[in-house]
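Before a colleague's protein record goes any further, I have to sign it off. What it holds is a sequence and that sequence's fold in token form. My question to you is simply how this chain folds and whether the tokens agree. Thanks in advance; the entry in question is below:
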Amino acid sequence: MTDHPDNGTIAPPARARAGRLARVLRGVAAGLVGVVALAVLAFVAADSDAGRRLVADQLARLETASGLSVRIGRIDGSLFGRMVLRDVAVRDPQGVFANAPDLTLDWRPLAYLGGHIDMRELSAPLVVLARRPALRRVPADPDRPVLPDIDLTLGWLAVDRLVLAPAVTGRAQTLRLSGRARIADARALVSADLAALGGGDRAMLRLDAAPDDGRLAMAASVRAPRGGALAALTGLKAPLALDLAGRGTGAPGTGG
């Protein structure tokens, strides 16, 4: 038997297998490029005028079990970042009970894929509450956790003028609202401030709560003069001045 030197050539079966593998890899690469291209096109199309109109129309079709729904006249900006919602109307089964001419939302919707609602800003120069909402009563779920099973970040909440119509508080009153919130890992961090414009109403809340661990830290302050917005909203007949502060622990799930 004569030995033939190895000249580096590939035998026909091996060459065929290599060719098939190369074709498969090229096919996979082409498929990935196609998927990415479609994703980019979908992203661009969704962030177009037509895409924003479609989102507004679809949102108008959604309604909670209690009958709450939202209508948006127009969306300006990016659906995937900062946008301004024009002519926002909040409805119950009886019709519109609140509206905002302009509502700014800065969020990162793709974070929801990781179980996180990420809102950097939710603000409005003006919100009008025309009447108290009349929502359908929905039975409470006794097994529902105290905190939602999803992370939530609200970096900045601001309403420069929250106008309460006479149907809400007996006479027109205007408040200013600001706050922020973070809910993650069964822990809620909330900061909120409310103040009347041209009145003595004030309210403040600082909350750090982990109900599953039975931990609670809170500071709150309320100033509700007679005839003010807070007295009308809560049904108080006498003025109220209240300051609370403390921290404690309790049985898990009870909140203290």
Q: What stands out?
A: Residues 116 and 244 are 31 Å apart (CA to CA). Residues 12-46 form the longest helix (35 residues).
